[in-house]
Specification:
The chain has 321 residues and is an alpha/beta fold. 32% of the residues lie in helices and 29% in strands. The chain has two domains: 213 residues, Rossmann fold; 67 residues, Alpha-Beta Plaits (2-Layer Sandwich), CATH 3.30.70. Strands 5-6-7-3-8-9 form a six-stranded mixed sheet, sandwiched between helices. The chain has a four-stranded antiparallel sheet with strand order 11-12-10-13. It has a three-stranded antiparallel sheet with strand order 2-1-4, covered by helices on one side. Bound molecules: adenosine-5'-triphosphate. The site of adenosine-5'-triphosphate has 16 residues, from strand 2 and helix 1. It holds the Pfam family DrrA1-3_C.
């Protein structure tokens, strides 16, 4: 594989706090890579180091053949986590302005902006002001602004946050389109479902450390298939079923429980179902489930991707304690 990006032993300290630890991974040219982890895991810090917006404490980075992202900035597109385009500009002017910052002539930027807005179903919004657009529309405009110059490498920080499912789908299509046109895409998210649908590879990050790098299928293969069982059943009775290695109680309403039972790698679930009926368990629902990327993340890191891991600076009173 030809790598468009390689990180080797990257660490980042903010004062006494180690936000990123000995992080190494590669992204193949032309692929879509998901950089996944809870809020505060160290994703934005890493993306900023890749872009050369802040220095690493140690380690080396190679992006598009350069050890400094700033030297290849015109070949990179970046959608930051904090968004905002000039409210009084029209989308066409805003997109062309961002293109011009990367060396694209204004007239060409406007031409491309009109075409790309049309392609994204935003033709009618072209002459409105940015402040008149919905959040979903504005986010699409901002993504277009970050890629209008035709970058080889696109870095998107939490591009799906704050979008409704419809707009999330539209954004997924845009990202697929960028890769289909030959760009390499690296995007961060704490929502595993997007990565599951989009990515060639994923890098899982928890508390500043890499927990996994590989394909989505490889990540899922680290986790077990499981059974969802519901009824007036004791968890110990489910734990005794053939093939079941552990049981977790998801909910318990006066003894009617929803249980999640992890299966041994070679267990199919049918044996457990048969045994459940033969022993007369009160099974009201029984389903065999494949692990999701979310399950794999929890299995690999012991952390829930939905939980914030940010370490906030101590308030003066906390610090005095
Ligand atoms: N400039 C800074 N000074 C001190 N601590 C920082 C700084 N920037 C980030 N941190 C801390 O480093 C940790 C990682 O933050 P980072 O923003 O990289 O995580 P993240 O995974 O991108 O999360 P989020 O999606 O919430 O931004 C957090 O605990 C954060 O509070």
């Amino acid at each position: 594989m030809t790598a468009a990006l390689t990180l080797d032993g990257i660490s980042k300290r903010y004062g006494d706090f180690q936000a990123v630890r000995d992080l190494s991974f590669s992204v193949a040219k032309g692929s879509i890579c998901g950089f996944l982890g809870p809020n505060g895991a160290g994703k934005t810090s890493t993306l900023r180091m890749i872009l050369g917006l802040q220095p690493q404490t140690s380690g080396t980075i190679s992006i598009l053949g350069s050890s400094d992202g700033r030297r290849v900035r015109d070949r990179i597109g970046f959608l930051p986590e904090e968004r905002g385009l000039y409210k009084k500009m029209t989308p066409v002017d805003a997109i062309a302005f961002f293109g011009a910052l990367k060396g694209l002539p204004m007239s060409e930027g406007k031409r491309r902006a009109r075409r790309m807005l049309e392609e994204q179903g935003l033709g009618a919004a072209q002459s409105k002001k940015m402040k008149e657009l919905s959040k979903g529309m504005a986010q699409k405009v901002q993504l277009i602004a970050s890629v209008v110059h035709g970058p080889e490498f696109v870095i998107l920080d939490e591009p799906f946050s704050g979008l409704d499912p419809m707009n999330q789908q539209g954004l997924e299509q845009m990202i697929r389109g960028l890769a289909a046109d030959g760009a390499t895409v690296l995007f961060s998210t704490h929502v595993m479902q997007h990565a599951e649908r989009l990515c060639d590879t994923v890098v899982l990050l928890a508390r500043g450390r890499k927990a996994f790098e590989g394909t989505v299928d490889q990540a899922k293969a680290t986790s077990r298939r499981f059974l969802e069982v519901e009824g007036a059943i004791d968890p110990t009775a489910v734990a005794a079923l053939p093939g079941v290695v552990s049981v977790e109680t998801i909910s318990d309403r006066e003894g009617v429980r929803a249980l999640k039972a992890a299966l041994a790698p070679d267990a199919g679930g049918q044996e457990a179902l048969k045994a459940a009926f033969l022993t007369g368990l009160d099974v009201r629902r029984f389903a065999l489930k494949e692990p999701t990327l979310h399950d794999a993340f929890i299995g690999l890191t012991g952390d829930n991707p939905d939980q914030d891991q940010s370490v906030r600076p101590a308030t003066p009173t906390e610090a005095a304690r």
